[in-house]
């Protein structure tokens, strides 16, 4: 996670740039080196101090019951709070180190422990780290059991450290997974599947009461499991949306993934996460992060995005919030509409298929007229509407999302329409009582 201490914000457009940058990558405005400022947004959360918090376990040296230690590095076998056995370090970011550990009191439950070692931070960093810690504790404890959010267990402290104990998510971050992909990118179908799952998780956050804005959607903050489940893993800068507020209290975000309004220009709402999701999907598809693309690096993906996906990404990444999709549910619908033609060999997505359907209907009309004159058998009538039914099924997905007299055409509406036609045909074939 990147914080304001490691970025420079452009006074002209508000974009976050790398600390070493001299000009804004978006508008080329010269950047001014200024001290980052922030203020606490959450009241400090009381934590449990469990003496002794840290004990070292080594062969022939059992842990002392009342001896505290302040290790710089937790080696495998370290015992935390008398029942968490450290297995290994699994990640670092911002002010924290994350370990995989086993809870010896819970039938060897695997947990993840995020540790913030305050003794290694400057006073300014300690303030930021404490704010981040309290915000994450508040968010995780609130969303216990929600799909896509790790389970929160407890938080601890000792003289020099803060600890956050949560569910261990097996797998790797989406950023790490991307690096292992052939060519270093996702194909369009894979990227869209990820986008659909993330949009669903974020939609749940946005519809909570009060709504929660994650504000840091990026591949490094998303866990990807072997079962292709996704989890948001860093709520350090998430915030509650407050209706009527002019702007955010603290400008925070990751360069390239954070929307311009996150840097003090306005209050962030769900459209900030839509921007972050758009930047994430663009990174997955191109294999390049936003700053690399802004610097002119070419996409690693030899194929361009489909026109529909390109249009959607342009809308999601618009600097003008009013030009972005209104919510994640709408993003899901757009992604589904892009994906469906690629997942059905019978999709109505070519002029050839349209011509087949047109000719089928014409043939049906002529044959029906002939059958009305010659009084052909019911078997022929069944064959006729069966032919049209097959053509309809082949092209059913094309109708989804389309409108008729300004109203969306639903699947059940279409099925009802065709069933009605078939019933009328059967009645005509049986008794010839209905004129065609």
Describe this structure in words.
It is a single chain. By secondary structure, this protein is of the alpha+beta class. It contains 11 helices and 17 strands. The strands form 5 sheets. Strands 3-9-10-8-7-6-5-4 form an 8-stranded mixed beta sheet, with helices on one face. It has a 3-stranded antiparallel beta sheet with strand order 11-13-14. A two-stranded antiparallel sheet has the order 1-2. Strand 1 and strand 2 form a beta hairpin. Helix 3 runs antiparallel to helix 7 (328-343). The protein is elongated. The model is unreliable at 1-6, 34-71, 241-251, 343-350 and 403-407 (pLDDT under 50).
Order of helices and strands: EEEEEEEEHEEEHHEEEEHHHHHHHEEH
The N- to C-terminal Cα distance equals: 69 Å
Approximately how much helix is present in the residues? Answer: 25-40%
Gyration radius (Cα, Å) is: 29 Å
Instruction: Specify the overall morphology.
Output: elongated
From the helix content, strand content and strand pairing, which structural class follows? alpha+beta
Strand content: 15-25%
Low-pLDDT runs? 1-6, 34-71, 241-251, 343-350, 403-407
**How many H/I helical runs?**
11
Average predicted confidence as pLDDT = 75
Task: Walk across the major sheet and give the strand order.
Answer: 3-9-10-8-7-6-5-4
- The number of strands is 17
- Please give the largest β-sheet: 8 strands, mixed
């Amino acid at each position: 996670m990147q914080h304001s201490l490691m970025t420079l914000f452009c006074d002209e457009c508000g974009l976050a740039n790398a600390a070493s940058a001299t000009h804004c990558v978006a508008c080329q405005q010269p950047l001014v080196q200024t001290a980052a400022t922030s203020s606490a947004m959450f009241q400090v959360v009381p934590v449990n101090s469990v003496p002794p918090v840290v004990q070292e376990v080594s062969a022939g040296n059992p842990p002392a019951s009342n001896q505290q230690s302040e290790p710089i590095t937790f080696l495998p076998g370290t015992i935390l709070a008398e029942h968490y056995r450290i297995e290994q370090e699994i990640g670092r970011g911002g002010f924290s180190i994350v370990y995989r550990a086993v809870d010896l009191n819970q039938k060897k439950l695997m947990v993840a422990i995020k540790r913030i070692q305050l003794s290694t931070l400057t006073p300014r960093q300690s303030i930021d780290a404490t704010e981040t810690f309290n915000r994450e504790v508040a968010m995780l404890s609130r969303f216990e059991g929600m799909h896509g959010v790790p389970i929160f267990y407890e938080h601890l402290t000792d003289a020099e450290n803060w600890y956050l104990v949560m569910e261990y998510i097996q797998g790797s971050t989406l950023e790490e997974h991307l690096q292992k992909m052939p060519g270093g990118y996702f194909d369009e179908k894979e990227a869209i599947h990820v986008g659909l799952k993330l949009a669903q998780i974020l939609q749940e956050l946005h519809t909570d009461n009060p709504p929660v804005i994650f504000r840091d959607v990026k591949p490094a903050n998303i866990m990807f499991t072997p079962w292709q489940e996704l989890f948001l893993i860093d709520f350090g800068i998430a915030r509650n949306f407050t209706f009527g507020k002019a702007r955010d209290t603290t400008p925070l975000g990751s360069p390239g993934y954070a929307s311009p309004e996150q840097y003090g220009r306005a209050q962030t709402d769900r459209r900030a996460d839509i921007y972050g999701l758009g930047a994430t999907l663009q990174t997955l598809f191109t294999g390049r992060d936003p700053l690399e693309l802004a610097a002119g690096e070419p996409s690693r993906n030899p194929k361009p995005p489909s026109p529909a996906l390109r249009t959607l990404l342009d809308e999601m990444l618009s600097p003008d919030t009013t030009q972005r999709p209104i919510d994640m549910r709408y993003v899901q619908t757009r992604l589904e509409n892009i994906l469906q033609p690629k997942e059905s060999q019978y999709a109505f997505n070519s002029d050839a298929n349209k011509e087949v359907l047109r000719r089928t209907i014409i043939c049906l009309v002529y044959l029906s007229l002939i059958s009305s004159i010659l009084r052909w058998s019911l078997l022929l009538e069944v064959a006729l509407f069966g032919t049209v039914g097959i053509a309809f099924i082949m092209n059913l997905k094309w109708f989804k999302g389309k409108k008729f007299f300004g109203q969306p055409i639903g699947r059940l509406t279409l099925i009802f329409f065709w069933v009605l036609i078939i019933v009328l045909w059967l009645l005509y074939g049986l008794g010839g009582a209905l004129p065609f």
